């Protein structure tokens, strides 16, 4: 099963490329994974009952606790959470999986004729639809409740993309968001229920839960209710029914697949899966009855007034989903058989009818039954298909819809069970709903294919093969399965109904059961259905009158709640995020104080009885200097002085690290603090020299209280955390394992690139995002773009002059000579000549020895950044570009790619991600080389940090230089031109009117 799901994923990833190459015909190869799944399910059909398989991960046979036979497959995933890729293909999963992949295959084939080659966003649509089929396949076959939730949410996200395919349509976007909010909210509730059941049973295995259901109790009852919330939101039960008709804004293939055969069936599947364990609970019975019954009636009633034939089917789908919930959720053997038969029948006839609607819309340009005329003659194949499918929906023999409806009538027969029982009340809902189902089936067929005497015949174009093949095949299946229901369907579906004890008179599928009360109820259904259709005008008038009353409804309540949430969010945001940094930080720090203090006050926590204040007087001296710098910095009124004093606190921290015997941390802290000071100073050029007016006494007092409170709380938390340790520290074995498994003696570096390599991976990704954000702040301002665009045009004529090889150009730091004399520093240029190359060599040395000595990629990258900072300070932007000709984005992207590749190679070699591999190589002349694969990961970190440094210097250094020059109008157009030309290429910025190309420069 996992291979088939991954095949859908791979196909989805390839979809955009296939669409670009093949156009709409790309749906044919994209249908292959679903078609392969159909073949697989057919091949495994005997094994689902009692067969065998030779797959190494497969097992077949009876499950624990007498579970029905099934094909199982298991792969370890997140074992610590009990979240493994377990798949179990029993009769229920087999039927649902076949519905998903069979109809999915036909829908993908149908898309070939439905979409034009130049359809906007077709690649994303094709990929999303293919991935959705794979996610649904995983959802109905997984045996793990947590994995089921993962697939559940994937389908919600993909349905959002599919419903909102037409992004230019406001209706499509709002419908997609509405569906996502409702289904995702239900999914979150379901997740809580899953966790509750996992706690109650000690396992997240569905088969284990079904074999040994937990005893009823508050936790189990609450968990079951939350499971049902997930099911009713996904399957559009009242009061969440309105999202499904709104989702008809999606292209018709989406409606046919998601809203008839797949997505909405996920909730029905969830109910069917857990009904054997929980159907006896009162909360289950009443939820199923009180939601399924009204949903069936409301959906059918609403469909009788629709003039859009697609909405007729949409509200009819809501009604049929209520019907399914009533039958499947009843929890008896006969109801299980009837419910599963109804599920298959509904998928076939409703999928076919939606595809017919899509063909009509495609060929005529309208779905309004008031405008359609004469389609029965002009589209005979689709007319015949619609007749069969609509008749099945109405419950007309000898079709599968009739068989399923007769089964439901038999299960809830009030003559046998009584009218004032759960079965009797359920039967009333089903009987009245079926009467209206017959009426809206006739309304659909009559409205879509009649010939109106007062209207001209609707112009149509040939629907072609693809628009007719899929719905016609589904209609044929409806006929075949209806005629063979007793011999084909009942043996398969009866395996699922075996969960329950056999009834005294078990249900048998078939077309004829004799002269029974059920037959009389069927005749009554047809008669009332015909009468409702004949009285359609009166019904429409009545419904319009009710609609004119503008009564409150579920959709209005939803919209009102969303507006209330928006207003609340705006109010909270306006109160807490006022654009004031002191206020924002004050809120964060206040919460940081309140939460720990609350825990310390209301919980008994241990405090250390003995602790050492210091190990040496040097530590005390450094601490006092650091404290003095912090206090002086807080009292300073000048920005530059405050920045330098804050830097002193950072250097003091580095000194404390060194005194405590942590040279690696000290080196990194020293480099970070040095670069931070430089960046601060670069930014200060755009700010006033002094801080604004001193805050009022109250504000200053509040800041002092918060600052002292944060410091005190952090100190207390550190002491309490040290005294609260119950287990030995995790670092205990690192000294030995750092070398035996990580291949290095530097524990800090081994942790960064091996033990906690994924953390480092995330951190360097954040570094890349931050550098990009800084560049955006500087370069994506409109006035900067306009200035740079104008300057770049000038640079094309002057660029060659700046790069003309001459005596001056051959000297190192030659670009500094083009600076104004008042901005040059002879001392700085001499120092740069002396230390630049040495710092680069030192950075490489720190990088290479970092696995066994203090250093590593992060520290090495910071040292290289400092070297480039010195070069920039000596010659500004021109010298920076000369020293770092590689783009910052290239450095960061290459570093991240190298780090990711290093992690993936471990998996490809059969190990774990980021697993270390140690090689000792004897190289002639050079001697022994101790090589560990995390070294390549460290090189990636080095490149990312270096790229970040180049990006920050380019943005906050050179970029701000040019902004200042432009604002002052100092005439330094050459530097501005060079800056504009290079930075447009460096950051990929292009003006929409005149794309700027990098000019060719003669050697």
TrEMBL record:
Q: Annotated Gene Ontology MF terms? A: antiporter activity
Primary location recorded for the protein, binned into one broad class: membrane
Q: Which residues cross the membrane?
A: 92-115, 122-140, 146-163, 175-199, 219-244, 284-304, 311-329, 335-360, 381-404, 424-446, 466-489, 509-534, 581-602, 617-635, 642-660, 666-684, 704-724, 761-780, 826-849, 855-874, 886-909, 929-953
**Residues annotated as domain MrpA C-terminal/MbhD:** 625-687
Residue ranges occupied by any MrpA C-terminal/MbhE domain in the UniProt entry: 700-778
**Residue ranges of domain NADH-Ubiquinone oxidoreductase (complex I) chain 5 N-terminal in the record:** 75-122
All copies of the NADH:quinone oxidoreductase/Mrp antiporter transmembrane domain together span 143-424
Biological processes annotated in GO: monoatomic ion transport
Localization, per the record, is: Cell membrane; Membrane
Matching entries from Pfam families are given as: MbhD (PF13244), MbhE (PF20501), MnhB (PF04039), Proton_antipo_M (PF00361), Proton_antipo_N (PF00662)
What keywords tag this UniProt record?
Answer: Antiport, Cell membrane, Ion transport, Membrane, Transmembrane, Transmembrane helix, Transport
Q: Where is the Na+/H+ antiporter MnhB subunit-related protein domain?
A: 827-948
Q: Which GO terms describe its cellular component?
A: plasma membrane
Record's bilayer topology term: Multi-pass membrane protein
- Supply the NCBIfam families for this chain: PRK12644.1
Q: Which protein are we looking at?
A: NADH:ubiquinone oxidoreductase subunit 5 (Chain L)/multisubunit Na+/H+ antiporter, MnhA subunit
Q: Which organism is it from?
A: Kytococcus sedentarius (strain ATCC 14392 / DSM 20547 / JCM 11482 / CCUG 33030 / NBRC 15357 / NCTC 11040 / CCM 314 / 541)
